[in-house]
Write a structure and sequence with these properties.
mainly beta, 1 helix, about 55% strand
Length: about 100
Amino acid sequence: MDTRKEERIYGVKDLIIKDEGKEFNAILTSISTTGISVIADSVFPTYKEIEVKFKIDENPITIRGSIRWVNDHKGEAGANLKEIGILFIDTPPEYKKYLDSILEK
């Protein structure tokens, strides 16, 4: 049983985590109104503020977020990946509108 407060939408999208001017690739694994979880090969300290960049309907969007948790995630061929939970800060209206449209389906 899933005890999370927010409904999750699962899928895979490429996205970028931007930290202090550097960009890191990540793959989206879960998305909700309050945040996302991603898989990446980079490590970030918890509570670190970052920016997340991805596309909604082919339109680029950037959202500020805070790293909330980091777990080990073994990838294919033993790749040492991390699963990262990101809490969004100041979510823009177009993001909320996009999620509402998906959740209605």
